[in-house]
Amino acid sequence: MKKKAYLGIDIGSISTKGVIINEKNEFLAECYLWTEGNPTQATQKVLRELEKQFDADAYRIAASGTTGSARKLVGSMIGAQVIKNEITAHAVGTTTLHPDVRTILEIGGQDSKIICVENGVAVDYAMNTLCAAGTGAFLSSQAHRLGVEVEEFGEIALKAKKAAPIAARCTVFAESDLVHKLQVGCPKEEIIAGLCKAVAGNYLNNVAKGKKIVSPVVFQGGVSKNAGVVRMFEEQLGMPVLVDEKGHLMGAFGIAILAKERQDEGEFSFDVAEMEFKTREITCGKCANHCEIICVYRDGMLIDSWGNRCDNGAVRQ
Amino acid sequence: MSRIHTIGIPRGLMAYRDGILWKEFFGNLGFECLVSPKSDRDILDTGMRRAVDETCLPFKMYLGHVEWLIGKCDAVFVPRTAGYKKREKLCTRYESLPDLIRNIFRDEHIDILTVSYDWDMDTSEEKVFLELGEQLEKPKKEVKKAYAKAKKQQDAWLKNREKAQNETLQSSRIKVLLSGHPYVLHDTYMGGELAQIINNFGAEVLYSDCVNRESALKKSYDFSHVMPWLINREITGADLLLKKKADGIILLSAYPCGPDALVNDMLTRRIKGIPLLNLTLDAQSGTAGVETRIESFIDIIRYQKAGGYGNQN
């Protein structure tokens, strides 16, 4: 008989992550790629990649879960048993690998969050508001301006003797600050170190404001791959900051574990990677609220819809 | 003023706190009252077109309600309420409300029925209502009676809400206290949406303004002697009174609110031993961001109660 495996997908605004784990929470397959503004296609690509790594003769997928900003859409697409917010997913994933963790710092493509943990369970959290200053998207746009790949940022920042002061409260201010620094002949590596410092400072002064940061600290999300930001966090916090090698997959890992624990098995087939999914946004005209209703179609058939505030806007399948 | 038959009451701002008193008072004096409908996207959009960008969301909503009433009543009731005590004032919006409305709707020449009181005047609620009745050319004796009756009607309404909340407190489900200004909590397009989301996640909603007002106000002095705002006092007092009975508190604010910015920061630092979430609403449509935040918050409460995620064997 085939052994049970669990699928977790984390669809963020910038990247989509997928993992398959076994009963012992060991990784059987993993994938990380860009969402490129199309969560359904990104998910299908992730599924194809996971299928390649997956030993279908030894295992079968017993349950699946989705998290991240497109969790609902992808959840109905793959027929997930668990659809949950990224705070819980990250907390579950991280506390599984690091049972003693007390603070989780997370900076992703367009959002950042802090999760405070006590006795292996989240007790408090905060997320950034609408503004994406100091997230991965901010670093990418600055890298572009400097003509450097964002992946190289960390290495370059570590070479700098000092960090140039840059205001990171707002992307617009940061950009004009950066142009000014370039024009007065400030070395590029100092500017990059300055950006990394600004990201860490901005995070601690905004998202983490008023939160008690207790060691052990785990830092994850795409930006945790930037060694420059990691060092700035360590300097500003005065404590070690741990970056897990699988840190970028923690949301997908966490939701896979939740799917496992739910013990509510459901059918899953990699065939969804080949089906055609379309979403349509319709504005309901039945009352003055004009709700924006999202309809999801699989091969032309409506499979799910949401966004209506009241029953008048319910879309019948 | 004798040509007034129908008085319009915008369903916004202090109408969510004192609206029953106003409506019953006018009704007892023989006037028709027309309350604008519950908030929706159209009302907000209308208000936003009228308002300057920087003002708060509830005020923009209020403007939409005022505009809805134009042409449907003989006068719109817009009181100037600055507070009765030095440490129990209201925000500057209220201190300038009739002037703001008169100027914003300058071209429409709307008739405003107003009354004014301030914390540095020697006055009382009853005196203010007597003044209002005098403006409406009603005999003093009749006005006094109308006020007394309206006050009783409001008390009954408040008692009922308190009673209903006390019943909710007995529920075995997770109880989330929505803490904020009444016009944010109960507006269908603001707090109303949140209550729906909280219910959908299987939790009960408690409100900071369904607590006995006098007790809450009194309790707030334990928290701060100098805090100048009446409503923030009522909110703070309610939070302290319900802290042990609720499973979590959501400090709900509508952007941008000066008093909330100060007081909620203090509350976040000083209320310990209960999960607390700061949530700020703005005019952005779509509830996805809010839903994620509430779901995360309820998960925190739920898994803490369960003692963990079950992932550590």
Describe this structure in words.
The complex is a heterodimer of chains A (317) and B (313). Chain A is α/β, with parallel strands linked by helices. Chain A has 3 domains: 3-92 and 251-274, Nucleotidyltransferase, domain 5, CATH 3.30.420; 100-242, 2-Layer Sandwich (Nucleotidyltransferase, domain 5); 277-313, no CATH class. Chain A has helices at 39-53, 71-78, 86-97, 136-146, 153-159, 171-183, 188-205, 227-237, 250-262; strands spanning 3-11, 15-22, 27-34, 59-67, 82-83, 103-107, 112-118, 121-127, 217-220, 241-242, 277-283, 292-298, 301-306. In chain A, strands 3-2-1-4-5 form a 5-stranded mixed beta sheet, sandwiched between helices. A 5-stranded mixed beta sheet of chain A has the order 8-7-6-9-10. In chain A, strands 11-12-13 form a 3-stranded antiparallel beta sheet, with helices on one face. In chain A, α3 crosses α9 (250-262), α4 (136-146) runs antiparallel to α7 and α7 crosses α8. Chain A is globular. The longest helix of chain B is centred in the middle third of the chain and has 29 residues, at 140-168. In chain B, β5 and β6 form a beta hairpin. Chain B has 313 residues and is α/β, with parallel strands linked by helices. Chain B has helices at residues 15-28, 41-50, 57-69, 92-95, 97-104, 125-135, 140-168, 182-185, 191-200, 213-223, 230-242, 258-270, 288-306; strands at residues 6-9, 32-35, 75-77, 80-81, 83-85, 88-89, 112-113, 116-117, 174-179, 203-207, 248-254, 276-281. Chain B starts with 5 loop residues before the first strand and ends in a 7-residue tail after the last helix. The model of chain B has no long low-confidence stretch (mean pLDDT 93). Helices cover 51% and strands 15% of the residues of chain B. Chain B has 2 domains: 6-154, Rossmann fold (3-Layer(aba) Sandwich), CATH 3.40.50; 169-306, Rossmann fold. The interface between A and B is medium-sized, with 34 and 35 residues. Chain A: Keywords: Iron, Iron-sulfur, Metal-binding. Chain A: Its cofactor is [4Fe-4S] cluster. Chain A: This is Acyl-CoA dehydratase activase.
